[in-house]
């Protein structure tokens, strides 16, 4: 759906879609995909004339790869990236120390993506944009939202060119400087993680191998890191701390070349092109609320992270994954709009925990001029869950401490027919997984049943019982009573 087909200039109002998604970053694109596959008319608005051109968010965590698997793009993502390379420390132009930057966890039958995968953000966005278009969605570029007005029937977005667009809901995925958040008056509470700015640039260079992440530590406490970008022939990301009172690093091509020659053993002639550059001061901030009536905040519009540990983009993807199915149940299946309250109730505590982890990691590594510590598997986000949340119902007794419970991520498992549980879960539906039990005979149109015998791989992961797996891959209900399945699913329809 193109903007020109729905907009009216001046004071006119165009009914654009059921949902307006503001921002075509990874969060907004993922949400657009999820809504499109649910048959929810959505329009993604991007104030820039193009997708973000830089590599800023380059690490996709295993849980995000599972999300991208469900959205139908994980094979493309894996084909366009690579594992993070071991770190290699340089001193006086010579390599002196090598170490493994990220803890590598082997894939298992229950967690098929075992390591952080490096893909430049611009490439991830290209893949998501292509998937959105495959599903009939589109991005309206050059569409800057400058104001938002709500009433009992919907929300109206005012664009910079005077266009007004009408929808049932609006999702702000327009980044850390979110104009929608400011228009709503939603404040963010946070702190400066590091008083010193970072310089980040995408460059083409020679003189370094692509089998390592290259690190330099200066006597003044500055550090520099050069990452070979996965899925490219000669692109690297250069990241440098800027201490000693530097207020704002020079982000011009000449400034980037100068920074590289000062911090590394490379010469200016080794830098063949500066494709993108930016500077920022790492902050940690959390919006005071994620829902304001018919407007919801997601991604960096809701939480701003240090880059340490690669958490920001991943948390935003999972915001979209949590929110998409809830909007779908409200708009397509008549669920009460109060279901959307659970988005903030579930995601705000997760964002707060991730912020604390990434802030600690930044201060113990980058702020200390010591980027050489290993990032443990806690950054993989496979342990994120919603136990005790508003949509979680665990009714079984006498469980072992290590047993899977309602609220946990629903693990994968190989099936006797050669498939996987993730194949069963893939799509916009709920799944009633019956292991050593019979599923209810009648289910609503948005739910499917799958039965497995006791003793197989699925039984090893789940145990016996009935498990309602939400569309975002978490166990909502775990029970031994089939009557509870129907009552639980009734919460998600009119």
Q: How many H/I helical runs?
A: 11
Question: Strands across the major sheet, in which order?
Answer: 7-6-16-17-18-15-19
CATH class of the largest domain: Alpha Beta
How many domains? Answer: 3
Integer average pLDDT: 90
Percentage of residues in DSSP E strands: 25-35%
Write up this protein.
The chain folds into 3 domains: 248 residues, FAD/NAD(P)-binding domain; 118 residues, D-Amino Acid Oxidase, subunit A, domain 2 (D-Amino Acid Oxidase, Chain A, domain 2, 2-Layer Sandwich), CATH 3.30.9; 100 residues, 3-Layer(aba) Sandwich (Glutaredoxin). Helix content is 25%, strand content 26%. The protein contains 11 helices and 28 strands. The radius of gyration is 23 Å and the shape is globular. The relative contact order is 0.14.
């Amino acid at each position: 759906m193109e903007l020109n087909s729905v907009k009216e200039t001046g004071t006119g109002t165009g009914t654009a879609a059921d949902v307006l998604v503001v921002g075509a970053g990874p969060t907004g694109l993922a949400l657009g995909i999820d809504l499109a596959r649910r048959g929810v008319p959505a329009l993604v608005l991007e104030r820039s004339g193009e997708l973000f051109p830089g590599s800023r968010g380059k690490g996709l965590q295993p849980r995000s790869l599972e999300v991208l698997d469900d959205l139908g793009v994980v094979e493309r993502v894996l084909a366009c990236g690579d594992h993070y390379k071991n770190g290699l420390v340089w001193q006086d132009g010579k390599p002196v120390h090598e170490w493994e930057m990220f803890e590598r966890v082997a894939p298992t039958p229950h967690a098929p993506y075992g390591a952080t995968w490096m893909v430049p953000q611009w490439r991830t966005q290209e893949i998501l944009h292509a998937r959105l278009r495959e599903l009939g969605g589109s991005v309206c570029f050059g569409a800057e939202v400058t104001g938002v007005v709500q009433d009992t029937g919907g929300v109206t977005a005012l664009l910079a060119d005077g266009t007004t667009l009408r929808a049932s809901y609006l999702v702000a995925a327009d980044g850390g400087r979110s104009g929608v958040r400011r228009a709503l008056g939603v404040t963010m509470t946070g702190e400066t993680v590091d008083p010193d700015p970072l310089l980040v640039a995408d460059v083409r260079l020679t003189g370094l191998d692509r089998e390592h992440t290259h690190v330099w530590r200066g006597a003044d406490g500055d550090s520099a890191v050069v990452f070979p970008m996965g899925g490219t022939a000669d692109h690297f990301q250069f990241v440098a701390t800027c201490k000693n009172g530097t207020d704002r690093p020079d982000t011009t091509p000449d400034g980037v070349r100068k920074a590289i020659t000062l911090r590394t053993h490379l010469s200016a002639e080794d830098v063949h092109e500066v494709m993108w550059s930016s500077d920022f001061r790492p902050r940690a901030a959390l919006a005071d609320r994620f829902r304001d009536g018919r407007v919801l905040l997601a991604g960096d519009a809701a939480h701003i992270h240090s880059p340490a540990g690669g958490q920001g983009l991943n948390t935003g993807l999972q915001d979209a994954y949590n929110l998409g199915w809830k909007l779908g149940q409200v708009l397509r299946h008549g669920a009460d709009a109060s279901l959307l309250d659970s988005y903030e109730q579930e995601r705000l505590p997760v964002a707060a925990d991730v912020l604390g982890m990434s802030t600690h990691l930044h201060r113990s590594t980058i702020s200390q001029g010591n980027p050489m510590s290993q990032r443990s598997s806690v950054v993989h986000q496979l342990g994120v869950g919603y136990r005790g949340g508003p949509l979680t119902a665990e009714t079984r007794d006498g469980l072992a401490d290590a047993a899977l419970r309602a609220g946990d991520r629903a693990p994968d498992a190989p099936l006797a027919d050669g498939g996987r549980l993730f194949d069963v879960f893939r799509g916009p539906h709920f799944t009633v997984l019956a292991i050593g039990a019979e599923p209810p005979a009648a289910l609503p149109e948005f739910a499917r049943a799958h039965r497995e015998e006791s003793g197989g791989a699925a039984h090893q992961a789940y145990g016996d019982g009935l498990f309602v797996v939400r569309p975002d891959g978490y166990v909502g209900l775990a029970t031994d009573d089939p009557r509870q399945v129907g009552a639980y699913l009734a919460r998600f329809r009119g």
